[in-house]
Amino acid sequence: MPNRHATSGLITPSRRQFLGSAAALGTAFAADMSTLDVLQNPTFASELKKQQKHVILLWLAGGASQLETWDPKPGQPTGGPFRPISTSVPGVEVSELLPKLAERMKHTAIIRSLNTKVGDHGGGAKLMETGRRPEPGTDFPDLGAICARELGRRDSQVPDYVSMYTSTEGRRKGTSGFLGSRYAPMFLSDQMTPKNIARLESISVSDHQARSDLRSLLAKGFAEHRQNDLVASHNTAYQRVKGLMASETLFDISGEPDSIRAMYGPTQFGEQCLVARRLVEAGVPFVKVARAWWDSHGQNFETHRELCADLDQSMSGLLDDLEQRGLLENTLVITLGEFGRTPRINPSLGRDHFASAWSCSLSGCGVRGGSVYGKTDPKGNTVVDGEAKAGDLFATIFEAVGISTHHEYYLGSRPVPIVDFGCEAISEVLA
Amino acid sequence: MMFAFRSALAAAVFSLCVCENLFAENNDPASAALSKLIDQKIDAANQDSNLTPAPLATDAVIIRRTTLDLAGRIPTVAEVRAYLEDPAPDKRRELVERLLNSPDFAFHQANWFDETLMSENRADDKWLQYLRSAAAEDRPWDQMFREMMVPPTDVAEDDVSQHAKTFLKKRVREPDDMANDTSRLFFGVSINCAQCHDHPLVEDWKQDHYFGFKSFFARTFLTKSDKLAEKFEAEVKFKTTAGEDKQAKMMFLTGDTVDEPKVEKTKEVREAEKKLIQQATKEKDAELPRPDFRPREQLVQVALKPDNQHFLAKSIVNRVWSRFFGHGLVHPLDQMHSENPANHPEILAAATQYLIDNGYHLKPLIREIVLSDAYARSSQWRDEKPPYVDRFAMGQTRVLSPRQYAISLIIATSAASRFPLDMPAEEWAKQRLNLEKQSYSLANELELPTEHFQVSVDEALLFNNSSRIQNDLLRTSNDRLVGQMRSQDSPIEQVTTAFWNVYGREPNPDELAACREYLESRSDRTDAAIQQLVWALITSPELRFNY
Question: Is the predicted ipTM greater than 0.95, yes or no?
């Protein structure tokens, strides 16, 4: 039996040391934070670019159709009205609804062989968010929380995980599970800026800082002779406030040049993609932008004509902007939802939930651009080559951004592998 | 996870023998020997490893810790002062007795049940009423278990006992959730691990256990009239690791099985039963199906058999212990099996026997734990490295639950005159109910602590920038601490008032100097300065934690 005393929790010795020292430093630590505004400091920003990997997850909530995006089936009864088009990579075709992304296929890998079996929204979302089936009593973290923990800086002044989900349909906050709320998402639902991030007008900037310093002084007295991770996490949370409040400007795109805004398009999704780029540039390791209303049980083709245009414009703008800034090589952009849609077209001209043979895409960091993995049969009903599970996709994502797929977390004495049992990365799509 | 259920049973039987010996010298097993025994065992173990425990905490810490733990709130200024001034040698015992019998106890106990059993931070009013009524009369835990498993269906609409159903109702969509959460929360065993972890010793029966336990819940459904009912039949089938299809047999964790009497039914009877179930799920005033054989009733019976009931008793003892020490006698709390032995097996055995001897009433157990010296030690450790938590050699600094913190915030920021010492019990019960209600919405913004909890930056942002903190807790009206401080003339008086209100103590010289300077340098905006000072006090860990 493993020694329980050695593995008292998730916190590794280095993290424990960090928290301990942060608590011990008290006010001194807080004072150092005043120098931090990463966007204002070009040296620091370029250093971050070199070191840090990022993930932007474009979450297609409700389930986008693989046939109208990454896996068209021309000439089949299941194919629908849209044609496939060739892309900038010879031999690779995608739906004509994605003309701009087709031109940028050199950045993108397509996986056409997801067979994830779970076809209800709640269960499918949980599976594709965490990379494994839920177990009652074990609260698994989602992809964002894992990336926040593995890619984030422990002393980061910016958020680790930002999740934007403005629509009401299937709104999901995301969960840091057993990793603890240090890695919980900063969730934006009602507005474009995070809750409680702006100072109240009734208090001046200097008083806001002064009362915080007074708080630190009282906290320091309390921490004396108390080596305690929980108390340290409380102080760390308060110490991060100033940096996070400074990041309020990251959510404000009004200062972006029109030429940049035009790349992303005038939609809310486009604006949120632009916010995602700003966040990544400032050092945020994981940003999720959710775009809802893909659940096209009726009028699938009209729905996809509209939503794919939005995705095509915004994601193309995002890839171009990241590339121009030298960020794309360190930023992985994912398109994913809870499942795909049935090849069968129902009497309402819709497609229903379908988890047995569907697609997702990976672009940028660590990806072999232009590669296509896996194959479905001519009608798109089954995977005929390279079947991939949710856990395989997660392993691939981890490899792409340099997270070891052999990593384990410890829940007490129980090891929980970062990737679900029996899953491995799809090396064919990795650079 | 390694689940040697048979060995776990053996361990349970073994530990029973141990505790019979422990109480052999004492003819009255329900006597107050338990708190002494707790200290004897912990002290002896620490002596063996040359560990000198922390000294006992000060009176001010004792009343704060105990009031938070038993009443779910910080003590009022009047309570602290009265306790400090009380010269009685056994005032700690009197304090515990007063708190156990206060209206606060039932409220806090109900909140604890709710957090433990529902693991979410939303108050369901009917469910809380059920828990409060049970907590108020210290209803035996085995009886509460029975009520939650088999909620009465024939009682009046306004009878709170029917809301025991909430436990299963919230999980009724998933038999796996009903099964695993019942096993985890009532028996301290997370059975779902038995699905996916191979263990050479348990290979041949672990799936039988998992699916056997799940079988008790396979027939449970919620009727259109919101009653928890059971179908006439439903089987749990599974594929064994060898690939065979197998039908599960209802089975308790010990391997004890339940046989369903074979009844031959005609086709007509089957059809009629089917129809009854269909109607019950669709029509509000449909007849309630009443099968003769009810699997959940069977689970209660098999779980409470003399040979099996130690699962229920040990698990609740362990959870109660963990509530007061921040760590279980067995830890994690849902890993009670032979591969994960208790850190102090004799204490677990004795406390389990004590609970059973006391008819599963939790209050006597709580009293004994809280009266131990182990509970009363200082949470500060002056040497380099504090001892591991399972030595119980010092007090643990524990984060408050959202409701404890929210209620304590209201008390800390209210004018002290709102809570006089001589308030009649009935009046105080009303006040306490108000505090509960006032605190819910703030509590719901805070995260419920779990095993690997960390305070989130969302909480820090909320306290920094939310108008609700500014406009509610820091209001300048006379019934508030800020209002009370406004009416005082000197900064020293103001700072002292604030420290007593929020921390129940005098400020030390450094604190007094810093706070006084803070107020004096803002004489052009005294209201704002007072609000900022109170803000700094209530967001400091000294209020956020139970130490």
Answer: no
